[in-house]
Amino acid sequence: MASSQELILKLLAGNPPDLRAMLESAINEGNGLTRRQKALLEMVVDVPTETDVEAASSDRAVRLTQIKRRIAELREERDEIKRRNDNLASALGACPECWGEDAQCPTCSGRGGPGFAVPNATAFAELVEPVIQRLKNLPGGER
Ligand SMILES: [Zn+2]
User: Fold this and answer.
1) How many whole angstroms from 123 Cα to the centroid of ligand 1?
2) Ligand 1 centre distance from Cα of residue 8 (Å)
């Protein structure tokens, strides 16, 4: 069993193939180490290796890329929903900001429900007239 001096000499004697394994072995074998020396060696062994740090950094980079991709997807989705909202509000003459549900709305002061403004004829023809036709074609005719 090597003494701690021998271990230190071994560690200092050049380029040990696996310093971590040597430290773990020294801790496990005892080697006449005091509890304090053992605790210090355990702290050294517990320090993440460069490989650990690189792996964690790589994991974070992958996760960051995934998050950025998801944010881009959500932005696209939001933009599409906003475009549909604005188009429908235009077809119904409603405030696209609040649909008349926000008394503090700078655009309509909460008066912007459907019919608040003159509906956009093109949007109305595209989005509302097919619904009216559908209702007219229901059994029982016009409602
Ligand atoms: Zn509004």
Assistant:
1) 19
2) 76
* Residue 105, C-beta contacts closer than 8 angstroms, at least 6 positions apart: 95, 97, 98, 112
- What is the predicted pLDDT for the residue at 129? 97
Residue 111 Cα to ligand 1 midpoint, Å, equals 7
Distance 57 CA to ligand 1 centre (A): 46
What is the value of pTM for the model shown?
Answer: 0.59
Mean pLDDT per 10-residue interval, the chain, length 143 residues:
62 65 82 84 85 90 96 98 98 97 97 97 97 92 56
Output the pLDDT for position 1: 47
Q: What is the 3-state secondary structure (H, E, C) of the chain?
A: CCCHHHHHHHHHCCCCCCHHHHHHHHHHHCCCCCHHHHHHHHHHHHCCCHHHHHHHHHHHHHHHHHHHHHHHHHHHHHHHHHHHHHHHHHHHCCCCCCCCCCCCCCCCCCCCCCCCCCCCHHHHHHHCHHHHHHHHCCCCCCC
pLDDT at 95: 97
